[in-house]
Amino acid sequence: MSTRIDVNDLDIFYGAFHAVQGVNMVIEPKSVTAFIGPSGCGKSTFLRTLNRMHEVIPGGRVQGEVLIDGKNLYGPGVDPVNVRREVGMVFQRPNPFPTMSIKENVLAGVKLNSKRISSAAADDLVERSLRGANLWTEVKDRLDKPGSGLSGGQQQRLCIARAIAVQPEVILMDEPCSALDPISTLAIEDLINELKSDYTVVIVTHNMQQAARVSDRTGFFNLEATGKPGRLVEMDETSKIFNNPAQQATEDYISGRFG
Ligand SMILES: Nc1ncnc2c1ncn2[C@@H]1O[C@H](COP(=O)(O)OP(=O)(O)OP(=O)(O)O)[C@@H](O)[C@H]1O
Fold this sequence. Notes:
Pfam families: ABC_tran. By secondary structure, the protein is of the alpha/beta class.
């Protein structure tokens, strides 16, 4: 599993509002790509177009192409449900299903995809997914207890286990640490670093140090003024973006001279 994403001339709308304009980028397989930029520039909106979650919002639509290993997600006949299986997502606030046990939470996505699996295969998948999310040793003795009984950081790793369980190729993360304390944040950052050996990982973060710590490549989004569309200003190796960006707007943002 490892997947390259090519975005070609992507424009994103909420009804008549043009939220993001003209994005072209390549997201490399088996790497971590981070998106940074000021509030409202369209990072989360753009992220959601990578697994067709944007169109779930009323009025949400796109023009352009998102190719996953050469196949356009927005091509005719493509089933968004299959897209979301291939491209998993982890949200800002950990959102385990509160009435489900830890084990049921891990299997929730697999069951939604109406896959029938034997109980032995389910046990195996639960263990593999929880190990993959660095949570197994902490929860292996309480798999039947509610997922909501875990700490915030553990809940977020449970959500990552749930995403991994459906065996996606890409994992999108929208500010996955913003609701977490520093120790839990470090645990998630370590995990992101491990996930890239198996998955293509894309993360939106407000935290520039986090982008610098976890990502191989960084894209800087910006917007000229409120009401104008956001744009991808530049995208490059993370070290280049933080040490020697090509664009003045990037330099101003990363050095805190923004706005
Ligand atoms: N559901 C929605 N309906 C209409 N407009 C929206 C919706 N969600 C976001 N927008 C608008 O789209 C633009 C981009 O928002 P988005 O949340 O993607 O930015 P962001 O860069 O992720 O911001 P933040 O860093 O604050 O999360 C903003 O102008 C926002 O108000």
